[in-house]
Every structure is written in C-alpha cells, then in structure tokens.
Write a structure and sequence with these properties.
The complex is a heterodimer of chains A (about 375) and B (about 425). Chain A is α+β, with helices and mostly antiparallel strands and about 375 residues long. Chain A has 11 helices and 9 strands. In chain A, the strands form 2 sheets. In chain A, strands 1, 2, 3, 4, 5, 6 and 7 form a 7-stranded mixed beta sheet that branches. Chain A has a two-stranded antiparallel ribbon with strand order 8-9. Chain A is globular. The two termini of chain A are about 35 Å apart. Chain B is α+β, with helices and mostly antiparallel strands and about 425 residues long. Helices cover about 45% and strands about 10% of the residues of chain B. In chain B, a hairpin with an 8-residue loop joins strand 6 and strand 7. In chain B, helix 1 (about 5-20) packs across helix 3 (about 85-95), helix 4 crosses helix 6 (about 250-260) and helix 9 runs antiparallel to helix 10 (about 370-380). Classes of the chains: A alpha+beta (about 375), B alpha+beta (about 425). The interface between A and B is large, with 43 and 40 residues.
Chain lengths: ~375, ~425
C-alpha cells in the first residue's frame, strides 16, 4: 500500500501531535536516566492509537502493509523529538530481518506480536569491535542433539538489548553467518546496559552461554539477510537523522531571529546567516536523499542499494553539521546541560557511527557503484 | 501526484521534441581514450564558430516559438502561450532529455529576465516591437546593469542619463555584460538624479545596441575565453518612449528583472561537464591513472559522489513536484548552489588524481583537458549572484532571518 501526499501529511501531523504531547523534552530527559529507557505506557499508546509498530508489516502478518516512505515520515518525527522507544530496533532491525529471511513460518509466528505492539524486538550482530559486517561475527551456533540449536558468544551495541522480548542473533554455523531467534527469558542469556554517548538510545552487551535458539531462514543466509536489513535500516536511520537535523535548523533560525547582540538580532550578521544557510542546504539534501531512497525501496528499484548508501552518508553528515552549528549559533547557552542542543549532538554523532561510520559507508557506496 | 493537466502538457512537449530532435546522448558513460575529451564549461570558440553557435540557438528558439513552446508564460496578445511558470519549468525539464541547441545566449538573460521586465514596464508599442522578436529568436537582449563600481550593489550605478528635449543622453561604462556582442537591445540602469537617495535616483532605458555611441569590447576572462564584455556609452541618444517605468523609478524596474532570474532545474548535469560528475567517468579516470586503490582518494571520491547523487535526488523530487503542478521551494536554490560546489570539488579531486598531468599537457587523452573545468570553477561561485548573496537569500527568504541593517554611511546617503 502507498499513501498519497495528503495521507502522508495527515500521518505526519498525527505523529507530531502525539509526540509533542507524549515526548516533550522533560519526558526525554527523565527517560534517558531511567531503566527501561522508554515508557511502556506511551509505547502501548503508539501501538493502539497510531498503530505505528505494524505500519510497514505486511497485512498477512497483522500489519497495515505500508512501506518505507510511510515509516520514514514516522522516523523523521521521532528524530525531531528524540523519542525514546523501541521502535527502531523492533521495526527497522528485527522485523526487517525476519522479512528478509524469507522464513514464512518464523514471520507468521513472530511478526503479528510485533505488529500489534505486544512484542518488542532487536537484532544482535556487532560484537566488541562494533562492526555490523556478518563476516566479522564470532558468536557460534551448534545443534544441541535434539534438533534444536544453542548459541554461544558475546554481542555488543544491541539496541534495547536489556528490554527486547525477542532477540534475533547472527551467529556462525559451519555454513556461515546465520540468523537465530532467542527469547528474552531463555536460559543462559545475560544482558547488561552499556553506558552510551547518546543516552536516549539504549544499548546493551549480551552474553550468550549455550542459549537455546531457533533457526530463522536457512543456514548461511546471514550475509544476504544483513545486506538487505542494513540498507533498509540505514534509510530508516537517515529519515530519523533528517528529522533531527531539520529540528536543529529550526531551533537555530528561531533563536537567530530573536536573540539580540550589539543592538541587532544575531541572524542579521552575515556570519550567522551563512551558517544557517549552510545548515538549510544540508537539511534539504538530507531530506531529498532519505525520502528518495525510501521511495526507491518501496518501488523495489535496482537503484535502491546505491540510494541507501547515499542517504546514510548524506544524512549522517547533515545531522552532525546541523547539531554542531546549533550549539555555535546558541553560543554559551548551547553548551549547557540544560539546553537540548547536546542531546541532538549526542544523537547525531551516535547515529553517524552506529553502523560503522564514514569509512565503512563510503566503501559501501563505492562497492554499490561498482567502483 | 501527477496532475492530468501537467501530464498532458508534458506529453505534448514530448511529441513536439520527438518530431524535431534526437534524445540526448549519455555523456556520463565513458570508454577511456575515445571521443571528445573537452571539459569546457565556458565556450571559447573562434569567431566564425561562435556566429554559427548563436545562429543554431536562434533557429531552435524560432522552432520552439512556432510550436508554442517559445514563450510558455507569455500573454497571448504578445505571442505567448498564457500558461504558468510551473509549465515553463516542466518544459525545461522535459527538454533537458533531448539533444537540442544550447539557447542560453538568448534565454538566460533576454527571455528569462529582460522579457518579463519589458512586459511589466514598457509602453505598448515597445512591447509590440520587441517582445515577439525576442521570443522568436530574432533579437537577443543583454543587461546593462553592472559597472566597475557597482557589482552586487547595483543601486550604486553612476552611468548618467540627462534629458534633452524628447531624448535622453547616456554616458558611462558597464561591465561583466554577458552576450552584449550578440545583442540587439540592452536594458540600462542609469543615474538621473544624483541628489536623491541612491535607490531613488535611477532610471531604466531600453537601448538599441546599434545606437551611435554604444561600443562593445570583449573582456577576456581567466579561462582565456571572452564571454563577457565592457560596454561604453558615449553620448548615446535614446528617445523618451524607450524609458521603462518612471523617471527616477528605475529601481522597481531592476527588481522586476532580478526577481525573474530563472530557476535552473532540469538543465543541470547536461553538456560536456556532465562527465565531471559521473561515477563511471571518475572511476575510469582513477583506473587510467593507477590511483584506483588509493584509500585517501577513494574516500574523497565517495564524499563527492554522495553530494552529486544527493543533488540528483533533490532535482528528481523537484521534477516530481512540477509534474504534480506544484512549484518547487528552496530546493531550486539549493540545487544551483550545490551544482557549482560539486563541479568545483570534482575539478579539484581530479587535479589530485592527475597530479603533474594537469600542470602540463602530456598529450594523454582526458587529462590536461580538465584544466578547462578547473579554470572555470571560480566563476561558478560568482555568476548569477555570488555564493554569499545566494546564502543571504536562502537565509532571509526561506528561514526568515532579518536583513543586515543599513550602515551609517548608507543612511547618510539616504537622508
């Protein structure tokens, strides 16, 4: 299903209204210092009132069957407010991994709970080195003798890793990297929260000590699944980054219009004006790159993998620039704990490096272009 | 989001273009060592080829006009089509897919900026005389605005116009005048009242370029070519009916011209320099120069391509808006800014790939040719409004930031 322009506007308006009510700055600040780092009541409302978790899950699995364009609108809005919720891990990582696995049984078993907002989920790939490249995975899975599997190893940087009900784990078998499903209460699973640069995004370290697991998809398919998931997740992340960058630009322009120094609004000084114009250029490019990539994904276009790499690189840079310049435009006040600018700075830097950072995504782009 | 009206119009444009011209060749694919390796952004043609170039532009403009695409936004009584600016932009975008003659010599300044100014401010018989001629490709127009002492600050012009009976006599010097050497008319800003505040003492005139006393001298630019001119006005006698707007009210006329600076979506990435922004071309260059696996260069190539491809996405989205009948917003200005920056970065990236091969000609295909683009890049940050002016416009018109207050000196002049 594809929403037309006016439906997208309505979706944006209702998500914005919801987030402004449920995720004001005070709420974000409170949640980023609590455990879990989201409000289960608000998450339920997002599921029940707005049906957000199931927005892009196919109808046959209990979702509404929309695509990345619609999810992109939601993520732009979440990025604006730094909404603390297990949305990204559940919908952009776990649900997309299940869909990419092509495992109809696993999808039928696991996706309806995700779509309804009853199950939160995540994807555990990176280990101590932080790479999302499945070739770098050292966690291992072995058959336990009764036809089941057990997984052994450590995972790091697992989004919402202490709270997710369902954890999809990439582990190595003799056939290569492979996807497995692990339940939160499985024996041998331990999770500890990591201290994070961006406190609004929870991450955990997992220790898996012969944890019972279910094979998802086929053995050795982990590389193919992860290539697809990373493209979709990085476009989702790009949308979130574009939304955050737009919010920074708006805050800077608002402040530059009203803050007076030397007898005039600081926005009338060309140096400040040009900073804001540079941010505008980056934000416009970021929105175009992320929205266009989402459109190409939904059309199943062969241009999508290149566009996904462009979106991730472009939006990472745009958000970082916007977050840095926001502090600069606000001067000393922008450097205080009380001002929200640092929350955006932290989110921007953390998002830029989440899947490996510029060196990784630049080679990824060149690879997709055949260079 | 395609609107029916826009779809019909685009289809009609396509039928017209299919009947008259071929599709544009793909200039981004490359077989190393084959074909033309020109990287010229500015033409620097010998005079006879330059005349042919202008002739081809006029010919194509005439065919456009006779088929209803020469003046899409113009009023029907003066030979226009009576449609919206969105139709105009959509036509340009469709036409960019075809291999048509470059009509910039007529359109950028004459049809895009001076035509609408004449329409808004000239007397009816002047409109009858010049508008159809311009849009048919018969008359080329130039802008006699800039002066040695008045570039971005146009209100500082000092060329004098003094009333003598039914005529005005103009004296002064203009500069940076594109296409003056080919023009039949020019729109001149002159100072008619030196005692008034500087914006209020200016009057605009339409100057037939064959009037005695008008002298056009080519101005050689850093690429070696001469796209601009100096224009000297010595006792140039212009009848009062060639005045546009009120006496001392020329600033309003100038603003009409500046506001009509045409948006450029769809025309970007065409021409020989498209190769400079093409992943295939740039990677072929790296292979040919054995810099393929240089990690630092690869990282820079990736950064450059991110901007090039994101700018393409911006243009694609603007085009989709146009097809839906919606005028694009700031993305057009952003696109223009990025186009110049992308070409500049591409030229400097390639310089680093080529190394010494760009400082002296080894005769190797596709190497020293890049000097043509390299030398054009500073102009890309100046022409059509400097980068600084463009950024001011984005900040003030899109973000609503306040204007720079007038300096004490400017206040004195006004009071």
């Amino acid at each position: 299903m594809t929403a037309d322009e006016s439906e997208l506007r309505e979706l944006r308006a209702s998500v914005r209204e919801f987030l402004e009510a449920k995720s004001p700055e005070e709420a974000v600040r409170k949640l980023m210092e609590s455990e879990p780092r989201f409000d289960p009541a608000v998450w339920s409302q997002a599921a029940d009132q707005l049906r957000l978790p199931g927005l892009a899950i196919p109808e046959e699995y209990g979702g509404d069957g929309f695509g990345l364009v619609e999810v992109g609108v939601v993520l732009e809005e979440m990025g604006r407010t730094l909404f603390c919720a297990p949305f990204f891990a559940t919908v952009l990582l776990a649900a997309q991994a299940l869909l990419a696995s092509g495992d109809g049984d696993a999808c039928a078993r696991l996706l309806p709970g995700i779509a309804a907002g009853r199950t939160t989920a995540t994807l555990a790939v990176a280990e101590d080195h932080g790479s999302w490249d499945p070739a770098m995975v050292s966690a291992r899975a072995v058959l336990d003798g009764d036809g089941g599997w057990t997984v052994r190893g450590r995972k790091c940087f697992v989004l919402d890793g202490t709270t997710a009900d369902l954890i999809l784990v990439v582990a190595r078998t003799v056939a290569g990297p492979t996807l497995f499903a692990v339940e939160r209460d499985a024996t041998g699973l331990a999770a500890e929260p990591m201290q994070t640069l961006d406190a609004t995004r929870a991450m955990a370290r997992l220790t898996l000590d012969a944890v019972p697991a279910t094979l998802v998809g086929t053995q050795g398919a982990g590389g193919r699944i992860m290539a697809k998931v990373l493209d979709i997740a990085s476009v989702g992340l790009a949308a979130e980054q574009a939304g955050g960058a737009r919010r920074c630009l708006e805050a800077s322009a608002d402040y530059a219009r009203v803050r007076h120094q030397f007898g005039r609004p600081i926005g009338s000084f060309q140096a400040v004006k040009h900073k804001c114009a540079d941010m505008l250029v980056q934000v416009e490019l970021a929105e175009a790159a992320s929205r266009e990539a989402a459109r190409l994904a939904d059309e199943d276009s062969p241009d999508f993998p290149v566009a996904a790499a462009v979106a991730h690189a472009c939006c990472s840079r745009a958000y970082m620039l916007a977050a840095m310049e926001t502090i600069q435009v606000h001067g000393g006040i922008g450097f205080t704990w009380e001002h929200p600018a640092h929350l955006y700075f932290r989110r921007a830097k953390s998002s830029q490096l989440l899947f490996g950072g510029p060196a990784v995504y630049h080679e990824r782009l060149l690879d997709r272009l055949g260079i | 989001m395609e609107s029916d009206d826009m779809q019909d119009f685009a289809a009609e444009a396509r039928r017209f273009l299919d009947a008259h011209v071929a599709k544009a060749p793909d200039r981004t694919a490359v077989t190393w060592g084959e074909g033309d390796d020109s990287m010229a952004y500015f033409s620097s043609l010998p005079p006879d080829e330059e005349r042919e170039f202008v002739q081809r532009a006029r010919e194509w403009q005439r065919i456009r006009y006779e088929n209803g695409f020469g003046w899409i936004t113009g009023p029907v009584e003066y030979g226009g089509r009576g449609l919206t600016p969105v139709h105009d932009l959509l036509y340009d975008a469709v036409e960019s897919e075809y291999d048509v003659a470059d009509t910039g010599v007529l359109s950028v300044i004459g049809l895009g900026m001076i035509g609408p100014t004449i329409l808004a401010h000239a007397q009816p018989h002047i409109k009858d005389r010049w508008l159809p001629a311009m849009y048919r490709g018969d008359a080329i127009a130039c802008q006699l605005f800039s002066e040695p002492g008045a570039g971005s600050d146009l209100a500082s012009v000092t060329t004098r116009a003094v009333r003598e009976g039914e005529d005005w006599v103009l004296n002064g010097q203009k500069v940076w005048t594109s296409v003056a050497q080919h023009s039949q008319i020019g729109l001149a800003l002159t100072r008619t009242n030196p005692d008034a505040p500087k914006h209020r003492g200016i009057t605009a005139f339409l100057v037939p370029m064959d009037t005695p006393g008008v002298e056009v001298r080519p101005l050689r630019q850093m690429t070696g070519g001469a796209d601009f001119n100096e224009v000297f006005l010595t006792d140039v006698r212009i009848p009062d009916d060639h005045r546009l707007g009120e006496v001392d009210g020329g600033w309003t006329v100038a603003l009409t011209t500046l506001m009509n600076e045409r948006a450029t979506v769809g025309s970007e990435g065409v021409g020989p320099v498209a190769a400079a922004l093409s992943p295939d071309h740039l990677s072929a260059l790296m292979r040919a120069t054995w810099t393929w696996d240089d990690r630092a260069l690869r990282a820079r190539l990736a950064e450059l391509l991110v901007d090039v491809l994101a700018t393409e996405h911006l243009n694609a989205r603007a085009l989709r808006k146009l097809r839906g009948g919606i005028a694009p917003g700031p993305e057009m200005s952003v696109s223009k800014l990025m186009y110049g920056q992308n070409l500049t970065r591409a030229a400097h990236f390639v310089s680093d790939v080529l190394g010494p091969r760009i400082i002296a000609d080894t005769g190797q295909w596709g190497t020293y040719a890049w000097t043509e683009l390299l030398l054009a890049t500073p102009a890309l940050r100046i022409l059509g409004g400097t980068e600084e002016i463009m950024k001011n416009i984005l900040a003030e018109r899109v973000l609503g930031l306040p204007k720079e207050p007038a300096t004490p000196a400017a206040k004195e002049v006004r009071s």
